[in-house]
Each structure stands twice: as C-alpha cells, then as structure tokens.
C-alpha cells in the first residue's frame, strides 16, 4: 500500500506549477529544504524519481508526468471534501436525492437536464422509493433532500409543502362499472393491486375500506407503478394509482378512472431536507425542484 500524504503531493504540484523548489516553497509558505524533504519522502514512498535536476533547472521524469493526473485528482477531492464540510452545503460534492416514483416517472429527465445545466460539477445520487422508504432514509440521514408523500420525519428534517397527489382506482376500458359511483364494497369484489405496506398509499386505502367496514377478498401488492398500470391495462385487476401518473394512459383510452364514493383522500407532498444543511445552495436547488413540479403539474394545489 502506498502512503503518500497530501502535503507531499501539494509540494510536488507546487514544483510543477512554479518550475522550481524555491518558488514552490514561496507558494506553500515553506522553506526550500522542507519542500525538498517532502519530495524525497514522496519519491521514496512511490519508489521512483520524479524530477531530473540539472543545476537550477528541473524537469519531470516519465514517472513525474504520470503522477500529475493522480495528484490533481487526489488534491481536488481533498479540496472538495474540505469545502463540503466547511460550508455545510450538500451541493458541494455528492447530493443525495430521494424521489417518489410518480415524480420520477413524470419528470426525472427534466430534473437531470436542469441539474446538469445549473450544477455541472455536482454528483447526484438518486434513490427512487415509496414514502415510507424515503422517510426512513431521511431519518437515518441517508438523503439530503427528498420529495415525500405524507412525510413522517423527525424534527431535524425540514418540510416544505408543495401540493397534493390525487389518488384513484383505475380499471381497463372493458370494465362495465355502470353510471353510479362505486362504493368500497363494490371495489372490494375485484382483484386489487396496491402499493406495499411501506407505502403511505397502503395505509390510506386500508383506512378507506375500514371506514366502510369492508375487507377486500383479493389484494396483491406491487412496488412498481408502471407494473401496476400494466396489470390494470390488461384487465387482470383494479389498481390504486396517482391520477397524474396514469393521465396519459387515461387520455389515450388505455385505462379508465373509476368514480368512487367516498373519494380516496389525497396525499400531501413535501420537499424534505436535512435542516443542518440548509443554506443558499440547497434552497436554490429546492426552488428548482418546485419549478419542475409546477411546469409538469405533478401535484395539485388542493386536496380535492
């Protein structure tokens, strides 16, 4: 294992930049002997000679040229790390983003395009999950910012409401639902596909049936909205889905939204972020998220 230090690499880089050991010492506020010592230690650690010395003139060996790229990357990473923790700004380094599946399906591409344009140096790490998973990751500080339905997060996670996700029962066009609104008892007669227990949607639909004193006979869970939508299209089952996600299929006549009474309660949606990281950089990113949400009409302004 090579144990070259950052200070040794800084001395090496300073010599490359300035062209001499003396000038490198001035750049680093070190004496020339100190710079020479660091380079000797680096050469000993790597087992190579980095410079050819011809009197006052120096030049890089082949190994010295090879080291330049490695040294630059290591020192840049060190600088990024120091700035990230000095500023407390997650936009300096890797930003860990959590997204609900309905947001991701509708406008992930647009979000990535805007991030690339506005923050070309940022490294984005994205997790797509349901509300329960996103809340847990925020609680465990595994995410910097997330779009969450019915967020259940601790006080050290800040929330900014951005709208509501309307939910509805969808069926294939071939289902004859009749002219009247369907009750929970009517819906319970069908094979149903709903989100898994970790999702707030699972709790919401369970409460909807419980309030009517109804227990569905056959319920399947699925953690993928598009797979649920495919099951609905095929006529295999009814599916509980965010209305906005299924909007294109509904307009194209591939599925139909069932009229039910009472309506399924909408989910409040919040942008959540670690309060300790609140700074202008993160707030600017949140403003951009809100713009994407508004431009694509991902969530409604009211609960009904």
TrEMBL record:
Keywords: DNA-binding, Transcription, Transcription regulation. Residues 1-61 form the HTH lysR-type domain. GO terms for molecular function: DNA-binding transcription factor activity; transcription cis-regulatory region binding. The keyword DNA-binding applies. PROSITE patterns: HTH_LYSR. Belongs to the LysR transcriptional regulatory family. This is DNA-binding transcriptional regulator, LysR family. It comes from Pollutimonas bauzanensis.
């Amino acid at each position: 294992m090579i144990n070259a230090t950052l200070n040794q690499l800084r001395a090496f880089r300073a010599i490359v930049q300035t062209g001499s050991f003396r000038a490198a010492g001035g750049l680093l506020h070190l004496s020339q002997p100190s710079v020479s010592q660091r380079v000797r230690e680096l050469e000993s650690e790597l087992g190579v000679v980095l410079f050819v010395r011809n009197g006052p003139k120096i030049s890089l060996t082949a190994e010295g040229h090879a080291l330049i790229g490695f040294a630059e990357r290591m020192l840049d990473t060190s600088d990024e790390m120091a700035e990230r923790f000095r500023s407390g700004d997650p936009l300096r380094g890797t930003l860990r983003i959590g997204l609900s599946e309905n947001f991701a399906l509708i406008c992930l591409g647009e979000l990535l395009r805007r991030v690339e344009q506005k923050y070309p140096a940022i490294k984005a790490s994205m997790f797509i999950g349901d509300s329960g998973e996103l809340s847990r990751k925020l609680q465990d500080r595994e995410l910097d910012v997330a779009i969450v339905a019915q967020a259940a997060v601790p006080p050290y996670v800040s929330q900014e409401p951005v709208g509501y996700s309307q939910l509805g029962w969808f069926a294939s066009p071939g289902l004859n639902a009749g002219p009247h609104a369907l009750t929970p008892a009517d819906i319970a007669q069908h094979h149903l596909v709903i989100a898994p227990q970790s999702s707030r949607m699972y709790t919401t639909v369970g409460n909807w049936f419980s309030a009517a004193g109804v227990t569905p006979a056959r319920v399947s869970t699925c953690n993928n909205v598009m797979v649920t939508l495919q099951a609905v299209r095929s006529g295999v089952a009814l599916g509980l889905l965010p209305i906005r996600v299924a909007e294109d299929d509904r307009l194209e006549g591939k599925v139909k939204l069932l009229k039910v009474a009472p309506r399924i309660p909408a989910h409040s949606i919040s942008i959540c972020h670690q309060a300790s990281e609140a700074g202008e950089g993160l707030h600017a990113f949140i403003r951009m998220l809100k713009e994407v949400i508004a431009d694509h009409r991902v969530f409604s302004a009211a609960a009904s």
